[in-house]
Automatic annotation (TrEMBL):
SUPFAM superfamilies: Class II aaRS ABD-related (SSF52954), Class II aaRS and biotin synthetases (SSF55681). This is Aminoacyl-transfer RNA synthetases class-II family profile domain-containing protein. One of its GO terms (biological process) is prolyl-tRNA aminoacylation. GO terms for cellular component: mitochondrion.
Length: 464
């Protein structure tokens, strides 16, 4: 557990994107890939148990390892409107993936569209295709991404208009990793790049064609350069000297799909499920790194030859052999959990903490003249463990609000702070010795005798 610092260009969303945060890091080391994968699953199970304690609808998504590397990683997300990630999940099976990896199953209407357009150029092509232009990081390659101006919506809905905002840059980068997606206008960078660079590649154009336009669209581009210019304002360029490439299928033969997944798209893992897109914030991440770092750093460990298995020469008579360390990297954003949960559960009245991370589980707020009674009630609850049928054997963590402000002020303040349960000593306490117990998140408001309070409160807390 430690503080980390990042020079965020644009801190936003309060603690969600700040320059300082608290991170719980975990690094694992094993001598074999089998043991490393077993450790990875143990960490995943521990993380799931931790997030289960919050009793919130978190998602465990298959994720890209990104720059950290490795070929296996999972992200832990909490859906909130302020989230910066898109997480895709199926309503039928357990398929959950970050947008970087998520795919949808091509439905029959999409395939029939492609087939119909394969029969020849679609009439009025200018209305049926749009282009988004990007450039490679070395500025030598102009990347044209061609996609339809509209697409059939899932579940038989009417066709919807498409724009550049509907493009999945992660899918484009999976085809062309050299794409620089940070530029809003890439043409000037490509135009000003010399035709031949000393240490770079010659200038070229790559056309990525979404499957919805059909495989014949590459021919349409060649035959209708006036309608579909490969380069805007190309009169000053000699395109004959520039290499031009067309990509209308992936290396494995599967179709190119560069449109963002939308609600209702078909699940790739099951035949009946449909996908849901949710904004979410990442709370934790697990990576299986393998030997990505240990081999370049020559980080080895000596183990008995018998344990090395296939990693050692069978004819070797050595008792000990050196093998590269199998590594794992895992982390939970503690600060981000606090801010994400606050965003997820807060309402117009105030915060609303789960039991696991609440500053106190219960607050006692006495009316005027009941301060001593409230102290006795709080002490009685704090010192009394719930009964045998309770979900917990731990004393209830309780606070006493004995400040001199009025009762309505302190009740409002309790809502702002977000205590899971509030106990009020008011008129019912004076007349019948009943405590008013409020739980805003469960929408309950009950009057409970003092002797029944510990078990009743614990029953409420077990749901929070």
């Amino acid at each position: 557990m430690g503080r980390k610092y990042r020079d965020e260009m644009r801190p936003r969303h309060g603690m969600l994107r700040s320059r300082e945060f608290i991170m719980k890091d975990l690094y694992t080391f094993d001598y074999s890939n089998q043991h490393a994968l077993s450790t990875y699953e143990e960490v995943r199970a521990a993380y799931s148990r931790l997030f289960d304690e919050l009793k919130l609808p978190y998602l465990v998504a298959e994720a890209s390892s990104g720059d950290i590397g490795g070929d296996l990683s999972h992200e832990y997300h909490l859906p909130i409107p302020a989230g910066e990630d898109n997480v895709i999940s199926c309503n039928t099976c357990e398929y959950v993936a970050n947008e970087e990896l998520a795919v949808s199953r091509l439905n029959d209407s999409c395939q029939s569209d492609a087939v119909s357009q394969d029969r020849g150029p679609v009439e009025n092509d200018r209305q049926t295709a749009r282009v988004w232009r990007g450039v490679s990081k070395d500025r030598s390659t102009l990347i044209n991404v061609w996609y339809p101006s509209s697409s059939h919506a899932p579940n038989g809905q009417e066709a919807s208009e498409l724009s550049d905002a509907d493009l999945n840059t992660h899918a484009i980068k999976s085809i062309l990793p050299e794409l620089d997606s940070s530029l809003s206008d890439s043409i000037p960078f490509w135009r000003t790049t010399p035709q031949s660079q000393e240490s770079g590649r010659p200038k070229q154009i790559v056309n990525v064609i979404d499957h919805r336009l059909g495989k014949s669209f590459s021919g349409t581009l060649n035959a209708n350069k006036s309608q579909f210019p490969l380069v805007p304002r190309q009169s000053d360029l000699d395109l004959s000297a520039i290499s031009c490439q067309y990509i209308d299928s992936l290396s494995d033969g599967s179709p190119v799909d560069i449109i963002r997944i939308r609600d209702g798209d078909a699940c790739p893992r099951c035949s009946s499920g449909s996908l849901r897109v949710q904004k979410a914030v990442e709370l934790g991440h697990t990576f299986h790194l393998g030997t990505r770092y240990s081999v370049p750093l020559n980080a080895h460990v000596q183990i008995p030859a018998a344990l090395a298995g296939d990693n050692v020469d069978a004819s070797s008579d050595k008792k000990l052999v050196a093998v590269p360390i199998q590594m794992g990297c895992h982390g939970i954003g503690v600060s981000r959990i606090i801010s994400a949960v606050a965003n997820h559960l807060a309402d117009k009245t105030g915060l609303n903490w789960p039991r696991a991370i609440a500053p106190f589980e219960v607050v006692v707020v006495p009316g005027k003249g009941f301060e001593e009674d409230a102290a006795a009630v709080a002490k009685s609850i704090a010192e009394t463990c719930p009964g045998l049928n309770s979900t917990s054997t731990q004393p209830i963590d309780i606070a006493l609000d004995d400040r001199p402000e009025s009762l309505p002020w302190r009740m409002k303040d309790a809502d702002l702070v977000g205590y899971p349960v509030t106990i009020i000593l008011g008129r019912k306490w004076e007349s019948e010795r009943l405590c008013e117990v409020q739980c805003r998140r469960l929408s309950t408001n009950s009057y409970i005798p003092l002797g029944d309070l510990p078990v009743y409160i614990d029953q409420l807390l077990s749901q929070l």
